[in-house]
Amino acid sequence: MKKLLVTGGTVFVSRSIAEYFAHKGYDVYVLNRNSRVQSEGVKLIETDRHDIGELLRGEYFDVVVDTAYTAEDVSMLHDSLGGYGDYILISSSAVYPETLPQPFTEGMQVGPNKIWGKYGTDKIAAESALMQRNPNAYIVRPPYLYGENNNLYREAFVFDCAIQNRKFYLPKDGEMKLQFFHIHDLCRFLDLILEKKPSQHIFNVGNREAVTVKEWVTLCYRAAGKKPEFVNVYEDIEQRNYFSFYGYEYVLDVDKQYELLQDVTALEEGLQRAFDWYVEHQDEVWKRPYMEYIEKNL
Q1: What domains does the chain contain, in order, with CATH numbers?
Q2: Which residues, 6 or more positions from 106, have their beta carbon under 8 angstroms from its beta carbon?
Q3: Strand 168-171 and strand 202-204: pairing?
Q4: Fewer Cβ close by (within 10 Å): the C or N end of the chain?
């Protein structure tokens, strides 16, 4: 039985990864402060990742999956590890400057992105720190992740609007395109990396087809058995005040991912699964005051 260490393990991405590999029969360890309910089938290493000390020194992990946000996160974990086999960092598409031609490819130069700001530059630094310590590690750069366990108020916000029979306030004409990737597909792709050990070590991941925000909202409402009535917002205001995403359109080139994983989850199917999960777990989502803003300002 292979031992796998997941940093975090209690919310969305890291939780889904831990549960996926535990279900696959791995001996899964999660490293967190034990401030939230732990998943079944995992073993807890209770500590702050910035104060691990000697807890991991005598352990060997066949796989480390790290959701690090900063270079310090990466460095401190490596300083604490006794030994490991494969290492995968969950990075982000935020590492690509918005000025580059699209779709973004893995070979492009990373750099600051004015939309993502510090989050993007911190992820760049985390990647760099990892490559300095382990050039054979894998880096995965997803677009917007969605699906079960999502604690972010993205599709859940639209689900709430549908459940409450609200009109939906859509940025401009609704034609801005977004790219998504279901969380289960991310887990499956990590599994394939560990199985195939590809020679490429940096991967963009995502569904090949981007969708407009109007199409996305329509699919979210459909998952709730509803049809949206749209109100277009053309005012020059920050759309993140009333909508789940920044006013930033981008697309990743995911050809390299598709060489390993072709049968990705269709967006309509994935959103239905996300809705079914949300109905039973509404209190696990960090809700933002979009509706309050709309009622006061739009």
Answers
A1: 3-146+182-204 (3.40.50.720), 155-177+209-249+265-297 (3.90.25.10)
A2: 141, 200, 202, 203, 204, 253, 256
A3: unpaired
A4: N
3-7 and 27-32 strand pairing:
parallel
Taking CA atoms, 210 is separated from 17, 58, 143, 187, 203, in Å, by 24, 45, 10, 20, 18
Q: How confident is the model at residue 221, as a pLDDT? A: 98
For the stretch 88-127, pLDDT in tens is 999 999 999 999 999 999 999 999 999 999 999 999 999 9
22, 39 Cβ separation under 8 angstroms: yes
Q: Omega of the bond prior to 228 within 30 degrees of 0, cis?
A: no
- pLDDT per residue as tens digits for the range 137-187: 999 999 999 999 999 999 999 999 999 999 999 999 999 999 999 999 999
What residue type is assigned to position 117 of the chain?
A: G
d(CA 125, CA 261): 28
- Residue 234, classified by CB atoms within 10 Å of its CB into exposed (0-12), middle (13-18) or buried (19+), is exposed
**Burial of residue 157, with CB atoms counted within 10 A of its CB: 0-12 exposed, 13-18 middle, 19 or more buried:** buried
Placement of tokens 């979210």 in the chain: 220
Please report which confidence band the pLDDT of residue 3 belongs to, taking 50, 70 and 90 as the band edges. very high
Amino acid at 43: K
In the chain, which ranges are E strands?
Answer: 3-7, 27-32, 43-46, 60-66, 83-90, 138-141, 144-146, 168-171, 177-178, 180-182, 202-204, 211-212, 230-233
* Band of pLDDT at residue 239, cut at 50, 70 and 90: very high
Q: Are 239 and 247 in contact, with CB atoms under 8 Å apart? A: yes
Q: Is 236 exposed, middle or buried (0-12, 13-18, 19+ CB in 10 A)?
A: exposed
